[in-house]
């Protein structure tokens, strides 16, 4: 059976099931970001199940520098370590090549870093990234790439993308080798390649065609939401996604707001991830169908309603805006935790609504209603 089953399409929007060794993923899906093997905000793996999380995402670079992938392998792999039996996607460390620009040097063989924790020298190339991800035993491993800045000049982006394409071939070869070893934790580990090219349509399209020939398990569009406008991002998706295989999952990395996700689904994206819901939650900013609320605002001091009427998340089932605001003001961790749980539930539940609307052939009207509602309600 094909790993990715395309169940339905509405325009370019796709509704699918992705079969993995750790269970089926219903797409479109939002992956909940747990950088070091936990979602920030005191969220447990039991919580994740309660708030409808299908896929947890962890960071290769961060787990490598602290606690160490070799130790995690000794302890049975990341699933066992964090007590999570559903799919995990690990990113490759490639984004840190972008975000730690002051701490690294890029060469053909890979990237030389200084650890952001203690300055220790680290080398990571395609093979090392695959080895770390194999040690973690994640369901889906991301290829090692460079994420060039969206404002980088054309020649730099061309050279970078060509190197990323060469690195991808090395990733594929190394993953095949690792999956064949007797002591590998997950011999069914999947590999997603990453499309790059900043905001140059032709470089993006050429790279998409080139990586599509490698017959990988899935394909990501990387290097967006790093400084370009939303319009530029949507334009790149319009131009690029049609050149990626429709019969494989497509992942838009690090994106985004609820509106970004709706626009991405319309353009054929299956997988999303973003730190927004957890990061905003930790700062008292919560998502609702009537826009985003800032619970620190004075007007919620005596507001005994839940964050959102009708929401079935652990926060809204029990607690009021007034109480959560009190917790936030008092710097009690529970306030942060409840806001994060609500936001992740909001995202995961929205993805369920998106899938239901695609099943019913009414995604276009759902998208219009959802966007309209989020811009009409109580803003703060």
Automatic annotation (TrEMBL):
The active site is at 91 (proton acceptor), 273 (nucleophile). Its EC number is 2.4.2.29. It comes from the Bacteria. Residues 254-260 are annotated as: RNA binding. GO terms for biological process: tRNA queuosine(34) biosynthetic process. It catalyses: 7-aminomethyl-7-carbaguanine + guanosine(34) in tRNA = 7-aminomethyl-7-carbaguanosine(34) in tRNA + guanine. Keywords: Glycosyltransferase, Metal-binding, Queuosine biosynthesis, Transferase, tRNA processing, Zinc. Binds 1 zinc ion per subunit. InterPro entries: ArchSynthase1/Queuine_TRR, TGT, TGT-like_sf, tRNA_ribo_trans-like. Residues 12-371 form the tRNA-guanine(15) transglycosylase-like domain. Substrate binds at residues 91-95, 145, 196, 223. Signal peptide: none annotated. GO terms for molecular function: metal ion binding; tRNA-guanosine(34) queuine transglycosylase activity. Zn(2+) binds at residues 311, 313, 316, 342. GO terms for cellular component: cytosol. Its cofactor is Zn(2+). Pathway: tRNA modification; tRNA-queuosine biosynthesis. PANTHER family: QUEUINE TRNA-RIBOSYLTRANSFERASE (PTHR46499:SF1). Belongs to the queuine tRNA-ribosyltransferase family. Homodimer. Within each dimer, one monomer is responsible for RNA recognition and catalysis, while the other monomer binds to the replacement base PreQ1. HAMAP family: Q_tRNA_Tgt. Catalyzes the base-exchange of a guanine (G) residue with the queuine precursor 7-aminomethyl-7-deazaguanine (PreQ1) at position 34 (anticodon wobble position) in tRNAs with GU(N) anticodons (tRNA-Asp, -Asn, -His and -Tyr). Catalysis occurs through a double-displacement mechanism. The nucleophile active site attacks the C1' of nucleotide 34 to detach the guanine base from the RNA, forming a covalent enzyme-RNA intermediate. The proton acceptor active site deprotonates the incoming PreQ1, allowing a nucleophilic attack on the C1' of the ribose to form the product. This is Queuine tRNA-ribosyltransferase. It comes from Agathobacter rectalis CAG:36.
